[in-house]
Design brief:
The complex is a heterodimer of chains A (475) and B (199). Chain A has helices spanning 8-39, 50-81, 88-111, 119-124, 136-159, 164-181, 190-225, 229-250, 263-274, 276-292, 300-323, 327-333, 337-366, 381-415, 420-427, 430-459, 466-474. By secondary structure, chain A is mainly α. Among the domains of chain A are: 1-138, no CATH class; 324-461 and 469-475, no CATH class. By secondary structure, chain B is of the alpha+beta class. Chain B is built from four helices and four strands, in the order H-E-E-H-E-E-H-H. In chain B, the strands form two sheets. Chain B has a two-stranded antiparallel sheet. Chain B has a two-stranded antiparallel ribbon with strand order 3-4. In chain B, helix 2 packs across helix 4 and helix 3 crosses helix 4 (167-180). Chain B is elongated. The chains are: A mainly alpha (475), B alpha+beta (199). At the A-B interface, helix 2, helix 4, helix 7, helix 8 and helix 9 of A face helix 1, helix 2, strand 3, strand 4 and helix 4 of B. The structure holds protoporphyrin IX containing FE (2 copies) and fe (ii) ion. One protoporphyrin IX containing FE (HEM) is lined by residues 130, 205-206, 253, 272, 275-276, 313, 317-318, 321-322, 324-325, 330, 334-335, 339, 342-343, 346-347, 350 of chain A. Fe (ii) ion (FE2) is lined by residues 202, 206, 253-254 of chain A.
Chain lengths: 475, 199
């Protein structure tokens, strides 16, 4: 791939994007394995047990999304700051360090898997806390690489020029990196452990990540639809006010049942119930801008994925989150397939979509083209089918999981009283098993979508678009 | 021209709004955290001291709160051995480190958080599946040391893998589970049936 015509930040972004997409593929592969283990518990039993396949599934997701975000920011950095990236060499070094660390962590997860209950295990093998299973040495490595990244972003904007988007972005990155540190300590007290663990998980996905993708969305709408900067910036501030205004105390919806005082039932229920508001606002914003411009942009796949993001975020986080966020409901749904249903639609709808959109924004530049219009030689069937299969696949999985979740919350929770027997009574119920089967069917659809997506990203725009062909012929 | 932006849609208004709202919410969160931390520190009313493993633990319906709450009863030392506060903390801590090192959360939920492939462990100590209180400790040790031979997955074919847990490790894990079952979780799990007192 010849990318010498790109600017420094963009070249680095391409590296991040490539690793992101490889890890996306790995995420799906291990997701398929975990899902199959629900139906065939003997599959890889004793070799790659469920806790191994699932850990790789969700960690690959977190890491590829971080790569996607870092890549996106490097992509827009020089354009937005109107100057060259300050520490490009350092940034490239950071990329290789991070990528080596990730490789080692994944290999250790797969090959060593676990260890005795001592500090060595937590430092070098597995920390055993969902989403942040990465051992402590890797946490420190991640923080160092994030600091390099943060230095590059802030110093470049400082040297070049600031804008509303870059200001929000930079402050948000401070918060994002700072919050990660809340997860980096050991305590025997499980209540204390989960109190801070949720700072990392919730204040990432429902506060700092949301604002980060708000910045990307603002920039993407400007890029793809040529929306006025003043308008997107004002919207971004509204977003920040509404998102942090609800999401920070919305943290309380994870403090209902972990030993924390009863006032969290009220605070968590109230503020998290407001979290959908900014997500509705975003849908209005995106749909309005697209309508005003009659859906005419210079990059059709990117625009489609930006709109998928607006709706996915609204449904996955806003609607699916709201459905179980009140304590009166959460008492029965907490830690059931409801959570898995919401987790899939939210992470895919809010984050996978926008990173894919950002990559599509980059693709024509990488290939030295003007944009991706409707004049693709093959009619663009690959990106259209990838879009359809991925979205239908994930929505299908979400609904299947929700049906299993309903059954589980009634039979295990309400009737069975959450005992061991109650749990298995629900798990072997035909309604539950059918949900798991349908999840696999839609999982395969999702996987087919990924294959097409990767194929499309590797090839789209390589052949000149049809009208360009005509032009060259006639000239 | 009359395109002067009204205050409610001006950029500078929302910029200030964003900053003030964020700062305010963050400060409130810090305040609440300062209030919550002592209440979830081990040795508090809601999260008992680790030496609670020396006591009998129940989970009974409380009419006033209208939920089940943990009830700490008479002396009932784990494995028949009364531990000091330090010994109890060391044992529970070892148990928790084992659950982290073996990635139990990769299949189970603890306090309802984790994975959904295996039963919730919040009140595992009180589960009627352990037959009865006199038999419980032994059954738990046997299960953890050889979960395949002692599988109790009710025809689902799902089994816990053998995680090479030694007898001492099993005891530490059980201490951790017993301590966890004493945490006041605001009635989660709801409608839970507690293990029989006698065989
Ligand atoms: C893009 C944003 C979001 C993402 C990526 C996301 C993702 C997730 C995930 C993965 C979990 C499961 C955590 C676990 O493994 O234990 C979860 C839990 C939860 N989420 Fe979200 N979420 C988002 C936004 C929201 C919003 C806006 C709401 C509320 C309106 C919400 C409500 C909840 C609740 C109540 C739980 C707890 C479920 C339980 O009790 O088991 N989420 N979220
Ligand atoms: C082929 C498609 C997929 C399959 C078969 C699949 C399967 C699974 C399975 C079996 C689990 C474990 C749930 C449990 O503990 O019971 C899981 C968890 C999870 N997956 Fe997937 N997955 C797929 C795709 C995705 C995608 C595309 C995303 C997001 C971009 C995603 C995000 C997650 C998250 C966030 C969790 C943790 C949920 C929670 O703890 O509540 N998965 N997945
Ligand atoms: Fe949350």
């Amino acid at each position: 791939m010849n990318i010498n015509h790109l600017n420094g930040g963009q070249k680095l972004a391409v590296k991040y994007y490539i690793v992101a997409m490889v890890l996306f593929g790995a995420q799906i592969l291990f997701g398929l394995l975990s899902g199959m283990q629900y139906l065939y518990p003997k599959l890889l039993f004793g070799i790659l047990d469920f806790n191994v396949t699932r850990t790789v599934h969700i960690n690959a997701m977190i890491v590829w999304m971080l790569y996607g975000f870092i890549g996106s920011v490097y992509w827009l950095l020089e354009e937005e700051s109107e100057t060259e990236v300050v520490g490009l060499k350092l940034g490239t070094l950071g990329f290789w360090v991070l990528t080596s660390a990730v490789t080692v962590v994944v290999l250790v997860f797969l090959l060593v898997q676990g260890g005795p209950g001592d500090d060595f295990t937590r430092w070098f093998i597995n920390e055993g806390r969902e989403y942040i299973e990465a051992p402590r040495w890797a946490d420190i490595g991640i923080v160092v690489c994030m600091l390099i990244f943060f230095y590059n972003v802030s110093a470049t904007f400082m040297k070049g020029k600031w804008s509303g988007i870059s200001g929000v972005l930079t402050l948000d990155l401070v918060a994002l990196a700072g919050i990660y540190i809340a997860g980096m300590f050991y305590t025997p007290n499980i209540s204390m452990d989960q109190y801070w663990w949720w700072w990392v998980i919730h204040l990432w996905v429902e506060a700092t990540w949301e604002v980060l993708v708000g910045c990307l969305m603002a920039w993407g709408l400007m890029k793809v639809l040529k929306v006025d900067r003043k308008i997107v910036t004002t919207w971004l501030y509204i977003e920040v006010a509404l998102m942090f205004g609800s999401g920070i105390l919305g943290l309380g919806h994870h403090y209902f049942w972990i030993g924390t005082p009863e006032y969290w039932l009220t605070i968590g229920g109230f503020f998290s119930a407001l979290e959908p508001v900014p997500l509705v606002a975003m849908v209005v914003h995106a749909v309005y801008d697209s309508g005003v411009r009659h859906m005419k942009g210079n990059n059709n796949p990117a625009l489609a994925w930006l709109i998928a993001h607006a709706f996915g975020n609204f449904f996955g986080a806003g609607v699916w989150g709201f459905m179980h966020t009140l304590p009166q409901i959460n008492l029965y749904t907490h830690g059931t397939q409801w959570s898995a249903s919401h987790g899939h639609l939210a992470f895919f709808g809010a984050y996978a979509t926008i990173i894919i959109a950002m990559i599509y924004i980059a693709v024509p530049y990488i290939r030295g083209q003007e944009g991706i219009g409707s004049n693709l030689p093959d009619g663009g069937w690959k990106w259209k089918w990838a879009l359809g299969l991925l979205n239908m696949g994930v929505v299908g999985m979400t609904i299947a999981l929700l049906i299993s979740g309903y059954e589980q919350s009634f039979i295990e929770r309400a009737v069975g009283g959450s005992t061991w027997l109650g749990y298995f009574t629900a798990q072997i119920h035909p309604w539950f098993v059918q949900g798991m089967e349908w999840r696999m069917i839609f999982g395969v659809m999702t996987a087919a979508g990924i294959v097409l997506l990767l194929w499309d990203l590797l090839t789209i725009g390589k052949e000149p678009a049809s009208n360009q062909k005509l032009q060259t012929k006639s000239s | 021209m009359n395109n002067i932006t009204p205050w409610w849609s001006s950029e500078s208004y929302w910029k200030k709004m964003a900053i003030w709202v964020t700062a305010f919410m963050f400060i409130v969160l810090i305040g609440l955290t300062i209030d919550t931390i002592p209440q979830i520190t081990a040795g508090s009313e809601r999260v008992p001291a680790y030496s609670v493993i020396n006591k009998h633990i129940g989970y009974e319906f409380n009419d006033e709160r209208n939920i089940q709450v943990p009830v700490i009863g008479a002396e009932d030392p784990l494995f028949g051995k009364v531990l000091s506060e330090e010994e109890a903390e060391a044992l529970v801590s070892h148990g928790k480190k084992i659950t982290q090192g073996r990635n139990c959360m990769g299949c189970h939920t603890l306090l309802g958080n984790g994975s959904y492939f295996a039963p919730d462990l919040t009140k595992a100590w009180l589960d009627p599946g352990w037959s009865s209180e006199p038999e419980r400790e032994n059954l738990m040790i046997e299960f953890l040391m050889d979960p395949i031979a002692n599988a109790r997955s009710f025809g689902s074919d799902r089994m816990m893998p053998n995680l090479d847990i030694s007898r001492d490790e099993a005891k530490a894990v059980i201490a951790f589970l017993k301590w966890m079952s004493s945490i006041d979780t605001n009635g989660f799990p709801y409608n839970f049936t507690v293990i029989d007192k006698e065989s």
